[in-house]
Each structure stands twice: as structure tokens, then as C-alpha cells.
Write a structure and sequence with these properties.
By secondary structure, the chain is of the alpha/beta class. The protein is built from 16 helices and eight strands. The two termini are 25 Å apart.
Length: 409
């Protein structure tokens, strides 16, 4: 597939200069268009589940048919200058941390116009078909600005409309698309009702839960967890761009970072803290069938976290009164962790250590983060996975998390 001229332009600016040589290699169009590396040695090919693909709406006007009439004027801009060239809400906090590049790959812009990730047909030809993706899990990005809404009712209305739009306009296009319905903590009761109303629709496999200040172990989320468990849907936790940026959002240890690079480096702390909080707060005793997929929070910190939590639990079990088992057992049973962004390693020993985390083969799933600027090309990243883990990372762990509904063909 020929390289888009927009990528030529992107290469002329500083987009690739701010990335490591390895990251640039991942993004280079020649490698991005390579033949997929999912052959098993014979004529059979492996399934590949990409657990992080971000769709966007071309314009908030597209949501009009899904909005109650009294809310259309609230959301749909009518005045000149109110429209957005990148959908309705911007997922990154450019006001706090100037991003080194555009947040999306310039060669992922649809040729027919609209923001990157807004054309399902182009996503098929740009990502899914070149790399033999069996299922692309859609994690709607439009919602990431909803965490900043002050009105719980407005948040629920927008989330419901966006979810219904994606069911109709994306899942109906191709069976290789699957969707995680997106809800927030604004109104857990309304979120739970939306999950129950839409959770049985074909192609819906999970619930993307966006967080503000409240840690995921809070009983505030119990209606959402109950609905997800009842409907057989996994919870998906993904950064929403507000963490570490605003007073209402969770932040890393030490407070608000001063620079983008600082924030990007320490953000996995937020994910790690929520993993521990869910376990220590007894979420999985209350919801023993619940599965959680942590996307874009990293995973290389898992070994130290599980070891430390287990040690402290063994020394003082009364400090974790909800737990019937060692913390690491809950991690392995209930959590999956996505590969992107895969930590850069300087040599084989570092890779061996990273992939040597106990029982990581049961917890790791592949994700590309398409169409963001730091997209991890499947052929490059999956090529780094140790051979004994490949089937698990390619598709088996995703099947364990989402169930057979992750495959629609």
C-alpha cells in the first residue's frame, strides 16, 4: 500500500526527531505496511486481537439522531467557529503539557477527510487488512473529554449517544470490529442501565470505564461492575488524558508533573495504584467473575508490585481484611495488561527480565494504540514477544478476558 503524502510531510517536521530510533522504526511507513508476522510456519495463520483501537466521530452532528431533542442544542454547535477539526472533545491536555507532536499519525488521516480514526473503511484498509487483525477492540476516544463534564446528566446522555452511534456505524460495517461501551463515574446507576440496555448487542464485548478522582476499588462503581459481570463484559481501564493534569483527576505520586515528558514517564503509577486498590478493596470477592483489562498503563512494574503486595499480605493479613488469597493470585486471575506502550529495552537481558515476570504469559494482550502517533505496529511488537508466549498474547488471553464474543466470524 503506497505511503500517504501526509506521512512525507510528517517526516519533514520534528515528529520523528522526538522519538527514539526504535519508536521511529515502529512508525516508519515501510514497516507499518509490511506483511503481517502472524504465520505459524505452515499455511495456518494465528488470530490477532488488537485491544486498543481508537475511533472518533467526524463531527458531533453525527450524534444528533442519537441525542434526545432537548440535548441536541446543548451538544451540537450551530455558531461559526464552534466546530472542531478533531471531533467533539480533545483527548489531550495541551493547555497543561504541550504535546511534542500531533497526537495521531498523520498518515492515518482518512483520504476523504475527518480526524484520524473517524472512517471505519479506512481503518480496515490501513490497519486491519495489512496486518491480518482478526478483531480490533474499539475504545472510543471521544469520551475522554467527558470526564471533565460537570453535569452528570450531560455525561450520561453523551456517552449513551456515542455508544449507540458506534454500534450502528462501526460494528455494522465489519465483523472484525468489537466495542467496549464507554461509561464514567458521573452517574454509576445510569451507566449500569446503559450497560444492561446495550450489552447484548452483537460486537459489544466490554465496558471502558473512565475514572476521575475515585479509585477503582470504591463501592461507587459496584453498579457498573455488577452490570458488567451480569452481561459477561470485561472492564477496560484506559487513560483519559486528564490524569495528572487537573485537580479533579488522579495523579502520580508527588503531585502534578511539570512537563509532558515527566507526566508520560510516571503515569503508569496511576494504573498500578488502581490495580492494588481493586484487589485490596475486595472488588473480586464481591464480583468473582469480573475481568479487567488495563490498557496503556504498562506492565513491566508487575513483578515488583506482586512480590511486594504478597510479602506484606503474608506478614500482616489483617491489613487486607477482604482478601482470601495472595494479591498476586487476584492479579493473575482477574487482570490483563496491554503491550502498548512496550517499554524500550537496551538489550536482550532487559527483554528477558521484562517478559520473565511470573505468569505474564497469562496476563499480556496485544494493543497497537492506533491511530496515535506512537502506534505500535503489530509486525514489530509481536515479533518481540517470546515464541512460547505468542499465541497467548496474539489472541488467547483476549479470549479469556472477553469470552468467545471477541470473535464475530
Amino acid at each position: 500500500m503506497p505511503r500517504n503524502n501526509l506521512c512525507e510531510n510528517c517526516c519533514k517536521d520534528n515528529m520523528h526527531d522526538v522519538m527514539s530510533e526504535t519508536r521511529t522504526t515502529r512508525l516508519g511507513s515501510a514497516l507499518w505496511r509490511k506483511k503481517p508476522m502472524h504465520e505459524t510456519g505452515g499455511t495456518e495463520t494465528r488470530k490477532i486481537v488488537d485491544c486498543d483501537v481508537h475511533p472518533l466521530i467526524k463531527s458531533v452532528d453525527a450524534l444528533s439522531p442519537y441525542l434526545p431533542s432537548r440535548w441536541r442544542e446543548h451538544f451540537v454547535p450551530r455558531s461559526i467557529g464552534q466546530s472542531s477539526s478533531n471531533g467533539f472533545v480533545f483527548a489531550r491536555a495541551r493547555d497543561r503539557y504541550p504535546h511534542p507532536n500531533t497526537t495521531y499519525r498523520l498518515d492515518a488521516l482518512p483520504p476523504n477527510g475527518g480526524p484520524a480514526g473517524s472512517d471505519p473503511e479506512f481503518v480496515l484498509s490501513d490497519l486491519i487488512e495489512p496486518h491480518g487483525i482478526t478483531t480490533a477492540l474499539l475504545l472510543p476516544q471521544e469520551h475522554y473529554g467527558v470526564v471533565r463534564f460537570s453535569s452528570a446528566e450531560a455525561a450520561a446522555v453523551f456517552e449513551r449517544a456515542n455508544n449507540e452511534y458506534l454500534i450502528d456505524q462501526w460494528l455494522a460495517v465489519d465483523n472484525r470490529f468489537a466495542l467496549a461501551l464507554t461509561v464514567s463515574e458521573h452517574d454509576p446507576v445510569a451507566a449500569a442501565q446503559s450497560i444492561r440496555d446495550l450489552g447484548q448487542r452483537e460486537g459489544v464485548v466490554g465496558v471502558q470505564l473512565l475514572i476521575n478522582k475515585t479509585m477503582l476499588g470504591s463501592r461507587l462503581f459496584d453498579p457498573i461492575y455488577a452490570a458488567a459481570q451480569d452481561m459477561g463484559l470485561a472492564i477496560v481501564s484506559h487513560q483519559n488524558g486528564s490524569e495528572g493534569c487537573y485537580s479533579f483527576a488522579q495523579g502520580p505520586a508527588g503531585g502534578a508533573p511539570r512537563f509532558y515528558g515527566e507526566r508520560h514517564s510516571v503515569l503508569p503509577q496511576v494504573g498500578a495504584a488502581n490495580v492494588v486498590d481493586m484487589i485490596m478493596s475486595g472488588v473480586f470477592e464481591r464480583f468473582p467473575e469480573l475481568r479487567v483489562v488495563m490498557v496503556e498503563w504498562g506492565f513491566s512494574w508487575l513483578g515488583a508490585l506482586m512480590s511486594r503486595a504478597d510479602h506484606l499480605w503474608m506478614k500482616n493479613r489483617s491489613a487486607a481484611p477482604h482478601l482470601k488469597h495472595a494479591p498476586s493470585e487476584y492479579v493473575v486471575k482477574h487482570f490483563k495488561f496491554a503491550t502498548q506502550p512496550l517499554d524500550e529495552a537496551s538489550g536482550s537481558k532487559e527483554f528477558e527480565a521484562m517478559f520473565g515476570i511470573p505468569e505474564l504469559n497469562k496476563m499480556l494482550v496485544f494493543s497497537s494504540d492506533y491511530p496515535h502517533y506512537d502506534t505500535d505496529a503489530p509486525d514489530v511488537i509481536l515479533g518481540k514477544i517470546p515464541e512460547p508466549m505468542k499465541d497467548a498474547v496474539y489472541w488467547q488471553n483476549a479470549l479469556d478476558a472477553f469470552g468467545s464474543k471477541i470473535f464475530r466470524n
